[in-house]
Amino acid sequence: MNEVVLAAIEDYKLQIKKGKTNTQLIYEHKSKQEEEKEPIETSNILIYVDKGRITQVVYNLLDNAIKFTPDGIVSVVLAIRNNRNNSKEIILSIKDNGTGIHPAIIPNLFSVFASKSDTGTGLGLFISKNIIETHGGHMWGESNVNEKGATFSFSFPYNMKV
Question: Which of 24, 43, 77, 148 has its CA 20 to 30 A from that of 6?
């Protein structure tokens, strides 16, 4: 998973540089397991998914974040945490401090053609969510509380013994 995220980030850093915007792209991977006695290694998280499709999702989410953040920060966090069933899951979150999610879009955020953008088809989030759910994961998006922008995340079950 780390390899997919790093490749996407490097591609977008080049595009940002060519576009001469002031967008900063930050990446961190960490364990969200404060109760763990030993840190969980997150630099080589392995999951069994269609790498091409997950790459498509990561690129789509980064593309959206950068498109709606012409001057600001886009941060990408890859982490491991306990889910509601107390089993491990990996989670990738892409947070920006751009324009945020238009209130009219929120009820239909992952629907076909849900977009307030001047570019694109409005299919990216719909397709991305379907890819994640087909792989047994979950995807969600929300406006950032008490700050500008939005955060989009997806998660997958993670078996550390693999």
Answer: 148
Beta strands (DSSP E) in the chain are 24-31, 73-82, 88-96, 138-143, 150-157
Q: What burial letters (b/e) apply to 58-82, b meaning 16+ CB within 10 Å?
A: bbbbbbbbbbbbeebbbbbbbbbbe
30-43 burial, b for 16+ CB within 10 Å, e for fewer?
Answer: eeeeeeeeeebebe
Residues 7-18 pLDDT 10s: 999 999 888 888
Q: Is the dihedral of CA 131, 137, 141, 144 positive or negative?
A: negative
d(CA 140, CA 57): 12
Buried b (16+ CB within 10 A) or exposed e, 92-123: bbbbbbbbbbeeebeeebbeeebbeeeeeeee
Q: Supply the pTM of this predicted model.
A: 0.83
